[in-house]
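Problem: given the chain below (176 residues), write out its structure.
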Amino acid sequence: MIDFLKKYTFPIGLKKSLKAGVKRYSPGYADAEKILIFFTSEGNQKIVLVRSLINKLEKEGKKVSCFYLLLQDEDKPDVHLDEGMKRLTKEDFSMFGEILEPGIRELLHEEFDYFIHADTECSIYSDLILAQSRAKCRIGKYFEGHEAEYDLMIKIGDDKKVNYLLQQIYHYAKAL
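Solution.
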């Protein structure tokens, strides 16, 4: 019943979050210090790919934080694979899409230079997360109709996987 109600109340919360705008701009990659990465869990392989990007960014002196959305139990990563990452579930959203998990809410209110959305598909949950983020520059895959939520969108073919998306995000972020 709750999921049914959220289907109708989440869009109201999304509109409200988008109206509470944050000053957004694209800082140069060399000047960027703090990066936040978000993705929807799809099992171990995706977490390994994201961890690889995190390691690459940290080697370049960036402070990287990461959290993921777990929608289904079968997508739960193996023990310790998500170490250092925060987890968010459907139950961590209020009826109107406000994030209730204090650790994630605190992350989203920090002023990150870049917010990287590392998913090849979007959902109402990712829309709500992006709308509540106070990051200066939001980067992710091009999703038609979601242009207002991103500052840099990367168009890739539907046949491309997360690994390719992460490579492209890194390439274009470095070019900023």
